Amino acid sequence: MIVAWGNSGSGLLILILSLAVSAFALFQIPTWCGAVNRDGKTYCRKNASGILMGCSYRQHRWQKLKLVVLRNKAGDLTQAVFPTAKEKFAGFIAVGGLASAIAAVVVPLIAGQG
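Above: the chain sequence. Below: its structure as tokens.
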């Protein structure tokens, strides 16, 4: 993706690569689960795939996705989705990929009108 931006690659290629980076960060990067345990004070430390997905427990997968959609407290969301620096970095990569995808669409529109 970075090479495509540096070499003035096609907008479609940059858009596809940017969305792929974001999808990988959101659904495939190895992370901790981070779902709230039954005691309500600790968070699950089992391995999970992606910052939006939970571990092998079905309840944890739904809990993570539900926290994103139905937020009760911002602290719960950030603690569950970003429990460690590794997950925060994955979130940064996901946001960067989405920003790149948006720029890949907007920059040619602006450049084409000028």
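The first helix runs from residue 2 to 6.
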